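Hi L.,

As promised, Multidrug resistance protein:
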Amino acid sequence: MAEKVGEIDQKIESNERLKSKCKGSVQTILLGSLRTVLKHSDGLDMLLMALGTIGCVADGACMSAIMLVLANLMNGYAAATSLTPKVINTYALSLLYVAIGVGIGGFLEGFCWARTAERQTSRLRTRYLQAVLRQEVGFFDTFQGASMTSQVVTSITTGKLVIQGVLSEKIPNFMMNIAMFITAQMAALYLCWRLAIVGIPALLMLIIPGLVYGKLLSDVGEKIQEAYGVAGGIAEQALSSVRTVYSYVREEKTAESYSAALKPTLKLGFKQGLLKGMAIGSVGIGYGVWALQGWYGSILVTEKNLKGGNIFTAGVCIIYGGFALGSCLINVKHFMDANVAAAQIFEMIERVPNIDSADQQGKVMSDAKGELEFKDIDFVYPSRPESKVLQNFNLKVDACQTVGLVGGSGSGKSTVINLLERFYDPLEGEILLDGISIKTLQLKWLRSQMGLVNQEPILFATSIKENILFGKEEASEEEIVQAAKAANAHNFITQLPNGYDTQVGQLGIKMSGGQKQRISIARALLRNPKILLLDEATSSLDSQSEKGVQDALNQASIGRTTIVIAHRLSTLRDADLIAVIQSGQVVECGSHDQLVQNIHGPYSAMVQLQRAFMNDKTVSPSEAIESNKSSGRDRDVDAAETKNISTTPSNYGSKMDQETKEQYGPYLWHFIQITGSQWKSTLLGCIGALCTGLIQPMHYYCMGALLAVYFINDHDEIKSQTRKYCFAFLSFAVSVFITNVIQHYSFGVMGENLTKKVRESTFAKIMTFEIEWFDQEDNSSGALYSRLATDATMVRTLVADILALVTQAISSATLSIILGLVLAWKLALAAIAMQPLIISTFYMKAIMMRSMSKKILKAQNKSSELASEAVGNHRIISAFYSQEKVMELFAATQIGPKNESLKQSWYAGFGLFVAQFLAAANAGILFWYGGKLLYHKEIKYKNLFQTFFILVSTGRIIAETGSMNMDLLKGANALKSIFMILKRTSKMNPDKKDGINPVKISGDIELKEVDFFYPTRPKQMILTGLSFKIDAGKIVALVGQSGSGKSTIIRLIQRFYDPSKGSVEIDGFDIKFYNLRALRSHIAWVGQEPTIFAGSIHENIAYGKENVTEAEIIEASTLANAHEFISSMEEGYATYCGERGVQLSGGQKQRLALARAILKNPAILLLDEATSALDVKMENLVQDALEKTMVARTCLVVAHRLSTVQKSDKISVIDKGRVVEEGSHDELLSKGEKGAYHSLVRLQQQAILRSGVGNTAKHPFFGVQTDADKTSQGIPGTVEDHMFVPVMHNAEVHNKDSAVEVLCKLHEQCSLHRLRFSVRENVNDDPYTWFALSVANCLGDFKRLCSVVAVDEIGGSRSSRGE
């Protein structure tokens, strides 16, 4: 744990060093960040702020106006002989007029500032996200500290809330208090200038500690935010990759890392509490000023014969003005927090990227031809400046030419596309489009000429239609459908219940890999680009889908320049030009036919390797040839995925977690439990708050007594009494400082510990929930991260601030009521009777705003989710120049909260009007009633004002407590949200105590009559009555077309979901009876889209096993063929992978994921297209490594490439959610054309034949060759009308006769009667055997056949065979 904390401290320090580099600019932003927020206001905002400011001034001037009236009232009431009912009524009406004025001011203050706050922060959120999307890709690569996604979500949620809170509440409160301070001092000068010139300068001492503490609070607040950012990055990564976290049983480890990342915030939070207590405690200087004023006031009364009412009200104005100034200091912390949040936001907004997507300058061609040229390109990635990716790279692409880029993983192929899209600029050299440097072209226009399809399909959490529209925003419905048909996506889309309006889920989680790929291809085709960029565009498709999509892509390539990156040579066979890239350079260039002629060249070697690798495992293309006559069965690719099951409850989705949303109440007892461990600091804080609350009624008691002293006729008595009260005021000054420090420091300790505990507990609890919960709309990774960041902060506010204020209010109100009843019970009862009305006003305001707050927070989660996706998919957004489209979607998420916020503004305005009016009218009513009592001699003058001051102070405290209702509402909602998580019971207890906890498992797997549908799509049955069994230690392959349910089976085995019917058993026990984490510890999973975390390579591999040694990591990396490329990097295993592994190529990421799985050494290995991202060479090596790791363990393999599965012990063909065929490769092939597996093989063979792997024109054993060629190569005969006919696998060839038998079978099946042979003299009488051996050699089977064929029995000299 200590090591983790040390690492986190280092990350924070690195952030500080990074910030110090641009310290000047950041400080400039910090100094004026809030001013900058206001500068972004429009005309309506300026009007609203102007009216709101008028309201604040009117509200602030209320005290001065009341004091001016009270000065006369006090003097008039003191002269009991001249007091009449008419005079009393006059004073009461004056106070009523003041109440009306302040009520109107309160309405303007509440409505206008709440309205403009929402408008401005919404605009700020929009501009911030725009600025983030505007940045170049290199900026994201080099971002340090917390992940970029987590910072964006934090700024858009927490940062926005902080700024909105300041604009809607803190600034108006600040301005109101400033207005109160200024008008109060002006009134004091008017009432008694002699007292004012003594008292006002003394109050200015409040400013100095406020400024000092404010600066210190700002520094601490910034450090706390940085520390939270590191922890937020951990949470965001875990939540967005929760399946990987669960699969590797790293929930507890991730929670520990998150907890360790939160630890540095504790001491900073303690320091913040101490500084806050000292800042607020400095308000005690005002009590010292009372002592000064009381003493000097007595001199003015006794020696200058000034009126006591004027002196006292002037003193009240000075002191209340001072307290108003002190209240401003309470907002200092909020201003500093907002300053920090705004500084980060505006640092991003004002950053001009090196490659600016918003820059409209540059050339625009009227008609681009598409001719491309790379000239002497040198390039390094900004995050790895020490490693050159391209070096002296040169390549020319003619217009409308199709160019294939081939090479090993990490050779620089994808970098070429990155440079062409201008994600980066080269260090040296230039890239030309039609002879013009792309740097001089307008970036928007340049990217509009290109259509990109990535290896990893990126979709957004919106509808299929909206995802396709990213390619061309103004496209018509017809164009969308046409693009989907071209991408072979239309059929499966139309079979979905909502068709093109179907929601794909976050990152397309609701779609299969093939479906996502086809949607992304449709997106690119919709654009109709001049340049088409295909980076492994068909890697996620099955053979049937690949054929259709590849044909569509080939058709789309006509008339446009196309650059294709592919590991499957089938994608490149028709390319006009193929460039072979090694070590960042083009080492060979030409057409396929030209390159294969150079048998010693790198391309030819790759072709031979792919032939040997793929054909070693591929059979019976004779049947594929036959299939040219008949396309076979056209099956519905996604029928299983989209089948509408009427018997499934349609309201299933609406019932999910309904009990979670309805059954929880206020959670007071749970709240007490969670704060129980901090009872000491909580108790100490409450004692501090209690004492602070008691000081105020005592102070007001002395104030009323001092007023009465000024009207005593005996001057010596005046001085004596005044001295006593002055000492009391001095004691209050010291006490309020001490009690505030105790209160805020104690609550700071408790609040920080509570926040840490809440975050830890919530995150740990979330990590126990079933995957189904994460699939729900409200529980996306962005929304959860937002709740985790925001809700814990709100709970802290509820505790640290509101609990303190409530405790103060209770203690103050209790003492006030007791004193009031003792001094003047009739007036006290009248005052107390008014309080429920005031309290109910604030309560009604809170009730009206509660429902809207929920809607706003929910809508904010949606926008946070979209922002998270947008940042994570920044490259694809940049490639399609879809920033505006994303912003439109983002704006759509803001419509709901904007409407609710408008209502909230009206309620805030009316609520504040009533509250302020009643508070001011309360004084008029009490003085009217008190005057009546005084007139009838039922109350003493002294007791009248003592009771009034004491009970009005109680009303003011209650009003202040009511003004916190927004924070109270947010805190209550946050607390409810937290406890909804903490008290929720997972449907799959991952740590079932009474569950089976196996030390070792055999690996028997059986699915019995399984029905399954995804909970978010209850009408779509994925599996129907599926049953199959895997024996321990066996290798079973699942094949089938995209969307048939293969990956779903893997998810069920890991118990990501439970079947709706049937059971999944391991070692004879239903997996529901196992301890889930114990079970998953014996299972390793490698998915089609590898999950790489934002850490080092070492950390990513070590994720597979706890307490792993360096040697084990290297061994696993070597087996996964990753060690070589890792070692070639300057930092080796310490190399930073980037967020979601963005610094690595697709093949490198896949190999790291494989190394992680190998390191786990599981009993059950689940491979879901585990080698789809690798080139042929790497796939061959990794496949060999996997075959070694498969020994003595149960393996389930899902693959579209049949070459990957043919050595399996059993192959299960999945179609429409059922197992339609099972058996070994040979058994399934023997079923002939009617077999499902046979059809899949046939489709794959057609792809192989198209790829050129089976192109025999230039093969040394086939084709038109010279006699010299034949002699030199030792060819035994000439084959005319040549056809490529692979030998059957597992053929029993023991002697000459059996070899002839094999050839006879081939003759019968492949119409070999068209083949004629000319036999050399030295080949005796067995041409068929030689032909078989020749074919076998082509297939890579020569060595295997030779091991079973007795060469001496066949005849012929070895020298003549070219051995």
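The chain is about 60% helix and 10% strand.

Thanks again for sending the construct details.

K.
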